[in-house]
Write a structure and sequence with these properties.
Dihydrodipicolinate Reductase, domain 2; Rossmann fold; 2 domains
Length: about 325
């Protein structure tokens, strides 16, 4: 039985991940930690979690816990992950893996030194709809892949417009802005489909001036086999301009789908146009957590590891490097 402890039982753990630890076979959520103990106790009552801790190190040192989920903001991922690894406990880390690629490397060095596995919550690698896209590509439904095009445009929140900023746009805590929080899913998924990105050219700016982090990013990148990708991310667009699309174009057709809205997957080729359901499970991390538990038990493997996730952080750092040379994190 894998007995989990969660460090940082915030909003992401309410539905997306937390309940899944008790629904996956041979898995149990045994303890939660949050610096505000009253919030941790409230979470524990609502989710039937037996133990509550105010300090991460006490949860890590609990002898009944044999795996740790680090669900704090990225700025503390490295610290808590390494402490867990030193205690001999595998870690499942929220995305992005850490504040930057350098911290990812520190986690991986600890993982290698203590022979403790690391997993990261890039759960699209295990979701049925996203696996369907992978199957369509590998079955040759669009022929040889030539181009990948991404667009993610979102409007600023009312809080951002009024100056009430969340940690997600504080580079010192999040590593960057919404680009780091959202584009990491897309870039990691493309790594899953086509392997590591080989080369990047990019621009990043802050156009709206609502916060310090970048709010518009464009990038061109290449994969093996001369596949070319382009991405544009804008977080100061109008509501009317909002979009969430990835299109993979081959020499015999194309596949179009969304990353976050779970719209139907659209395949277009010489057989016409077909739509496939892109399922949004009740707990979107369920399938990946199931794979992680099987990996820890030795009965399966996880498609998302610290090694693969670190590659995504490396690419994100490269994309915004020039911007942050001018604006200190």
């Amino acid at each position: 039985m894998i007995n989990w402890g969660i460090i940082g039982c915030g909003s992401v753990t309410e539905v997306k991940s937390g309940p899944a630890f008790n629904k996956v076979k041979n898995s149990k959520l045994l303890a939660v930690m949050r610096r505000d103990v009253s919030l941790a106790e409230d979470y524990a009552r609502r989710h039937n979690v037996p133990k509550v801790y105010p300090k991460a190190i006490d949860l890590i040192n609990d002898k009944e816990i044999n795996a740790v989920y680090v669900a704090t903001p990225p700025g503390s991922h490295g610290e808590y992950a390494i402490e867990s690894i030193k205690a001999g406990k595998p870690v499942y880390i929220e995305k992005p893996m850490a504040l930057n690629y350098s911290q990812c490397q520190e986690i991986l060095k600890a993982s290698e030194k203590y022979n403790v596995p690391v997993f990261v919550a890039y759960y699209r690698r295990a979701l049925p709809g996203f696996l369907k896209v992978k199957d369509l590509i590998e079955s040759g439904s669009i022929g040889k892949v030539l181009i990948v095009q991404m667009q993610l445009f979102k409007t600023p929140s009312e809080n951002e417009r009024s100056g009430k900023l969340s940690w997600r746009v504080d580079p010192a805590i999040a590593g960057g802005g919404h680009f780091f929080d959202l584009a990491c899913h897309q870039l990691d998924y493309l790594d899953f489909l086509f392997g590591p990105i080989q080369k990047v050219k990019s621009f990043a700016f802050n156009q709206a001036g609502l916060y310090k982090a970048e709010d518009i990013v464009t990038a061109e990148f290449t994969f093996l086999n001369n596949i070319i990708g382009t991405g544009t991310w804008c977080f100061s667009a109008s509501i009317e301009s909002g979009r969430d699309t990835i299109e993979i174009i081959g020499d015999k057709g194309s596949i179009r789908f969304s990353t976050f809205s779970f719209d139907p997957i659209i395949l277009t080729n010489n057989s016409g146009k077909q739509e496939f359901i892109n399922e949004r499970p009740e707990h979107v991390q369920y399938y990946l957590i199931d794979n992680v538990v099987k990996s820890l038990e030795g009965t399966g493997t996880s498609p998302s590891t610290g090694i693969s996730a670190a590659r995504t952080s490396k690419i994100m750092d490269e994309i915004v490097a020039e911007y942050y040379m001018k604006v200190k994190r």
